[in-house]
Amino acid sequence: MPLNNAVINIRNLRLRTFIGFNPDEKEKKQDVVVNIEINYAINNAVLEDSVENALDYKQITKKVIEHVENGRFLLLEKLVADVLEICSKNPIVSHARVTIDKPHALRFADSVSLALEYVANKTNTLKLVENAS
To answer: Is the pTM here over 0.90, yes or no?
Structure first.
């Protein structure tokens, strides 16, 4: 069976970080929920269980956790862009999408979320996918 693309989904990674520019947001960490989708090229070696040829999603997740939990961000856009950059660094990544929710950011909403995506071999600018509450 010829396969050439795989999709890794990391769902509901719950982290805490400094996010926002209001005085209380600068002093107290808030919850964020990170969702990541990474599309990457696979080869026959991966289908034969060759670990060396697979995308190391555990390493990517560790880098995301470290960056988010040790960072300070004024804007959700910056946080999402940084996580997307971490997810798209590997040259076998053809497409990545990161959505981050900021629960309880608005009084009557469950959360505010923002998504950005990366597409290889396109312009190196990030694409704003969604900005919803």
So the answer is: no
